[in-house]
Design a protein that fits this description.
271 residues, alpha/beta, D-Maltodextrin-Binding Protein, domain 2, six-stranded mixed β-sheet, 11 helices, 12 strands, plasmid
Amino acid sequence: MKLYATILLLCIYAVPVNSEPLHVKIMTDFIPQADGSPENEATEFVLAAATELGNKISLQFVPGSQLQDWKQLSQLPDVCLLNKLKTPEREASAIFTRYPLMAFPENKLIVFNKPTLPNSISLTDAVNYYDLTIGVTSRRSYSAKIDDFIKRHEEHFFKVDGAANAIQLGYMLFENKIDAIFEYKSMFIHRYQRAHGIDKIRYLTIEPSEPAAFGYIACSPSPQGKQAIALFEHALQTEKIKTLISTRLMELFPAPDNTLIVDAFNAAYKN
C-alpha cells in the first residue's frame, strides 16, 4: 500500500502545471498605443519577442525618462530598458542581453558652416587641433569610446540636461553658439530638415569608425532580471525574430548604410 501511495505522489509531482508568467516592467518613452500598436522599432521588436515566448512573460509598459529609467532599474527587481548601449559603467549595474535588439549607424560629429574640416576626424584632433566645443546631453550614452573621451576632456564639451534640451543643441549649432554635436545623421535630418542653413551642415565620420552601434535589452540585476534576460535571449535567437529585425533595419535606413548595418547585426549573432 505504501508503495502505491509513493508512486501516486511521484506521478502527481511529475505532472506539468501551468506556471505564472514572469511579470516585467518596461520603462520607456514609447508606450504602445491603445490598440497595441508599437510606437517605435525597439518596442515593436520586444512585443514580437514576447509573443514568441507565449505565456512565459508578461510585459507592462511604464512611462519613463532617461534618468528615472536607470534609477528604477537599480531600485526595483523587475525592470527592463530597451535599446540601450552597453558601456562598462552600465554593465556594472544592469544585466544586458548578449544579442542586440536594435542596430543603427554610429554617431556623426555634426558641424555647421565649417567647410575646411576633413570628412573623417578623430576626437583628439577635433578638440586639440581644431579646438571645437561640442554640445552633449548629460546622462546620454553616445558610445563607450565617446563617453570615455568626454570624461577625460570635459573642458571641451558644453552639457545640457534632458532629452528636450538635446533638441536645443541643434539650434545652438545653427546659431554658432557651439561648434559641433554628436547625433545620428538620420535623426538630425528628421529634426532639423526645415531649419535655415541646413545646406551648410556636414556629417563627419568619427575615427576609428565602426559600421554600426547596437542597442540591447538591459534588466535589473536581480533573479527576476536574470530570468527576463534568459527569456529575451531565447526569443532573439529564433529565426522569426532575427528576420523581423533585419528586414525592418533594411527598410529603416537608406543605402548603403542599411546593408552595412544589417551585416553588422547578423554578425553580432554569430559571435
